[in-house]
Amino acid sequence: MPNLAWDDFRLVKAIADAAGLTGAAQALAVNHSTVFRRLGQIEEQLGLPLFERRKTGYVPTPAGEEMALLAARMDEDVTSFGRRLAGRDVAPSGEIRVTTTDTLFLHALLPIFARFRTAHPGIRLDIVIANQALNLSKRDADIAIRASDTPGETLVGRKIAQLAWAVYGRIEDELGRPEAADAAGLFERDWVTLGDQLGYLKLARYVRERVAPERIVFKTSAVLGLTEAVEEGIGIGPLPCFIADRRPRLRRLIQPNPDFATGLWILTHPDVRHAPRVRAFMDFVGGELARLKALLEGSEAP
Q1: For the whole prediction, is pTM greater than 0.90?
Q2: CA distance linking residue 226 with residue 195, whole number of Å
Q3: CB 3.0-4.6 Å disulfide test: which of 223, 227, 229, 242 passes with 192?
Q4: Using CA of residue 190, residue 191, residue 197, residue 199, what is the dihedral sign?
C-alpha cells in the first residue's frame, strides 16, 4: 500500500477544486512546479492517474474524485475535532462569547451577567450585540440568547419563555383603566410602532391594519427605544411586557396578544455543550431567566 500523507490528499483536493494546477498552487501557497511534481509522485506511488489532462483543465478520474472527497471529509473532521477540543476544558474557566440583542442585554441580561461573574470569577464574557443570528457552527459565538420561532435545528439548548407584547400608554394621559378602555377609540389616537424594516412582524401589521397612516406618527427599527417613545408621550403603541410592565408611568391599554409572542431561547453548538464554562453559563443564565418567566410572558401583574 502507498504511504500517503495528509498533504497528498490536500493537494489532490486543491487541484480538483481549482480544476488545474495554477489555482491549486495559489490555494496551497506553493509554486506551480511544486504542485506538478508532487502530483506526479503521488500518481506514481498509486500506480494510476488521478486526473485527465484536458484543454478545459484537470478533470478527476474516479480515483482522483474519491481521494478529493475523502480529503473533504478529513478536513471537516479536523474542524469538528477543534470544536470538540474547545468543549473539553477541565474546569469552568476561560472566555465565552455570547450573542444577544441590545434590548435583551440592557433590560434583562446585564444584571444576570453580573451575578454570573460573581459566581464564576474564572470565566470571562465577550458579549456580541447583534440583532441578526450569528453562526454558532462557525464559532462566531459560543452561546446565543435570542428571540426566535426558528432557533436552528443544529443547535441545542432550551426555550425559556414566550416573550409577550401588549399595547401601552402613559398613565398621565388619562386613557382610562385597561379593562374599560375603548379599543376603537384607542385607534383614533397617535401611535408609535416598529419601522418598515420590521414591518413583517405580526404586531407591526396589527398596527398598520387598524390605525390610519396619519395616526402612525413615529416609527423606529430600534425596539430598544420604543418604550421611551411611549413614555415621552409621542403616542401609544405595542411594547415588550418585560420592559413596559416595570415602568410605573406606563399602563396596559390592550392585553397581550398570543400571536405577537416570540420564543426566548438559550442555545449552543453540540460540540461545546459539555465544556465546563459553557455548561456553567447555560445552567446559571438559563435558570435566572426562568425565574423571570412570568414577567417575560406578561402574566406578572404590572
Answers
A1: no
A2: 10
A3: 229
A4: negative
Phi-psi region of 220 (alpha: psi -120 to 50; beta: other; left: phi over 0): beta
Same fold, 94-163+262-296 and 165-260: yes
Strands (E) across the chain are located at 51-54, 57-60, 94-100, 123-129, 143-147, 156-163, 165-170, 191-194, 216-220, 237-240, 250-254, 262-268
DSSP state of 142: S
What are the pLDDT digits (tens) for 32-53?
Answer: 999 999 999 999 888 899 999 9
Identify which of 248, 252, 224 has the alpha carbon closest to the alpha carbon of residue 238. Answer: 252
In 3D space, the residue among 209, 203, 263, 269 whose CA is nearest the CA of residue 237 turns out to be 203
* Superfamily name with CATH number, domain 165-260: Periplasmic binding protein-like II (3.40.190.10)
For 6-86, the fitting CATH number among 1.10.3720.10, 3.30.310.50, 2.170.30.10, 1.10.10.10 is 1.10.10.10
CA dist 155 and 267 (Å) reads: 6
**The domain defined by 94-163+262-296 carries CATH number 3.40.190.10:** yes
Question: Per residue in 266-281, pLDDT tens?
Answer: 999 888 888 889 999 9
d(CA 251, CA 30): 68
Nearest to 190 by CA among 169, 160, 162, 166: 169
